[in-house]
Amino acid sequence: MKKILITGASGFLGWHLCQLAKQEWEVYGTYSANFIALPGIKILPVNLTDFQDLKRLFNDIDPNAVIHTAAQSQPNYCQSHPQESQTINVTASCNIAGLCADYAIPCAFTSTDLVFDGLNAPYKETDSVSPVNIYGEQKVMAETGMLELYPMTAVCRMPLMFGMETPTAKSFMQPFIQTLKEGKELKLFTDEFRTPASGITAAKGILLALEKINGYIHLGGKERISRYDFGKLLVEVFQLPETGLKSCQQQDVKMAAPRPADVSLDSTKAFALGYKPLPIKSELEKILKI
Ligand SMILES: NC(=O)c1ccc[n+]([C@@H]2O[C@H](COP(=O)([O-])OP(=O)(O)OC[C@H]3O[C@@H](n4cnc5c(N)ncnc54)[C@H](OP(=O)(O)O)[C@@H]3O)[C@@H](O)[C@H]2O)c1
After folding, report:
1. What average pLDDT does range 32-61 have in this prediction?
2. By the 8 A CB rule, do 270 and 142 touch?
């Protein structure tokens, strides 16, 4: 079996990717602060911001492909810790692309829909980027830097992702479910739109892109939905008490990082390659049954 290195195996998406990739690859997954045991996967600790550590990792594994998901993925944290987050989100990503170029192996990188300003959705791969927060700016720098160093990189722009909780990571829906179960108020935006995809579906898309794409690809879901309507679907599928679910608008909540209104992705290119997100309700029903 060929060897694949997946950075961020202890993260939400990395965990889903490892589960899927192990069917076809010998998988090496990394963690940093949160140790994780994954049956059938070799798990390694690494600080990706340490170039010597990173080089050693490549040298020890001698991978045939790399998927780089590790990141500081919280926009509010990046906004208040710009230099610290730059080292993992930009510098480490570029170093990984450089090493993939040296090894001449496929490389996929998980960027974000937040490279766009949210004023002209849906966004295609050819649309110009216009991030409104530091996290989005860092992802743009990583995209550009990686493609300069290694034009073969598949830059996967990921949408908002949801799915079951992993041993060491949650998606945004777990706190929503918890709040509603506790009968507390959950205020969700009616004016913030995304094209969400489940972690499992997104992982399938990345594996597809790894083999078939050099350059940009959007891996959004098929439906554009507001946070509030997503909350309504959660209530319906998970049979949650809906009394706490309230609507609000972006301007009602002050956060460190500015939030774009509508970064829905046009993922026609990925759909043509065989990327097949299901309707959100069907994806949620599948997650409920796991
Ligand atoms: N979740 C979303 O909805 C979403 C949407 C668009 C794009 N994305 C992008 O998709 C990717 C995966 O997101 P996610 O939600 O799965 O992220 P996540 O759950 O926050 O996981 C982040 C991963 O990065 C690792 N990491 C962080 N700093 C590190 C360092 N210095 N050295 C080594 N590893 C480090 C973490 O390891 P430890 O936990 O062990 O420290 C963890 O495994 C990210 O690139 C993110 O920007 C996510």
Report:
1. 97
2. no
Rounded to two decimals, the pTM is 0.98
Q: Is residue 240 lining ligand 1, measured as CB closer than 6 Å? A: no
Q: What is the pLDDT of residues 194-208, one digit of tens each?
A: 999 999 999 999 999
Percent of the chain with pLDDT over 70: 100
Cα within 13 Å of Cα(81), Cβ side: 12
Three-state SS string across 224-287, please?
CEEHHHHHHHHHHHCCCCCCCEEEECHHHCCCCCCCCCECCECCHHHHHHCCCCCCHHHHHHHH
Tell me if 43 CB under 6 Å of ligand 1.
Answer: no
Determine whether the shortest distance from the Cβ of 18 to ligand 1 is under 6 A: no
- 215 backbone φψ class: left, alpha, beta (φ>0; ψ -120 to 50): left
Distance from C-alpha of 169 to C-alpha of 127, rounded to nearest angstrom: 32
- pLDDT score, position 290: 87
- Say which amino acid occupies 275: Y
- Tell me which DSSP letter residue 120 carries: S
Ligand 1 pocket test target in 73, 161, 259 with most atoms within 8 Å of CB: 73
pLDDT at 51: 98
17-to-187, 200, 285 alpha-carbon distances in Å:
31, 7, 20
